[in-house]
Amino acid sequence: MGLVEWSMVLGLSILWGMSFFLVELLIAELLPLTIVFLRVSIAALTLWAVFRILALPFPRRIEIWIAFLAMGLLNNVIPFTLIVVGQIHIASGLAAILNATTPIFTMLVAGALLPDERLTAAKLSGAVLGLSGVIVMIGPGALEGIGQNVLAQLAILGATLSYAFAFVFGRRFKNAGLHPVTTAAGQVSGSTVLLLPVVFYFQDPAALVSLSLSGWAAVAVLGVFSTGAAYVLFFGILGRAGTTNAAIVTLLIPIWAILLGSVFLGEVLQPIHFAGMALIALGLAAIDGRPLQWLRGTSFWRS
What we know:
Layout: H1 3-26, H2 32-54, H3 62-89, H4 92-99, H5 102-113, H6 121-138, H7 150-169, H8 172-175, H9 180-202, H10 206-209, H11 213-241, H12 243-247, H13 249-264, H14 271-288, H15 290-295
């Protein structure tokens, strides 16, 4: 990845890092499936508006829309629901650590299914090093509950595995020549269609009427920015840099969760946080490979 791709990864990690905080605000008022439905439906409305503004060509082939439905299931419906369910029963720190295993699962799945993204020792060691940084930064105390609420923890891990298959499946949209906005809009639209009947069956509509003003604000930010804008970046990274590089964003998400907490909640950054960030940086450097080349006399930013 070059400077542009790394900037896209950084922006995506900020947007997705915000989503964990927003979900924490919403689970006290809404059912998990309802949060997911509002998230993807608002994102769909936003992205189709952008689609019209950009005057992009509308995808008409039936196989593309089937692929949108499949991508929505793998990349939204299944993982979003499992993560929200998991967050109800386990601490957000442990949830973030489990979610940070996504690059490892993605490397294994991509290595098995994609001939141009074979698993290497450098990639795997970098992912493990980054995961170690997440554990250090959040604090080993977050692992104390790892033997409790096993089903909730398996739900988070199931979400990461679903993400891994979604990242691999999403590669096909690059070959279809679709704009990232079109792909993102199609995916969240597919998710909305799949969730609509389920949500109306389980959620009392009165819950939406009684949702607090802060709840609606959280839903709006979650849908427009942490989902709509985020998936435009995601598909851009997927098309430009590949599956593994799109997955490493999950290693950066806990950094933003902690930094946002220090800015908006007055939480104090401790030395352990900086140590964890350093380990994550080393892990990303190992995955990218170019810092080692730089030490050997090769420019880091050379693409």
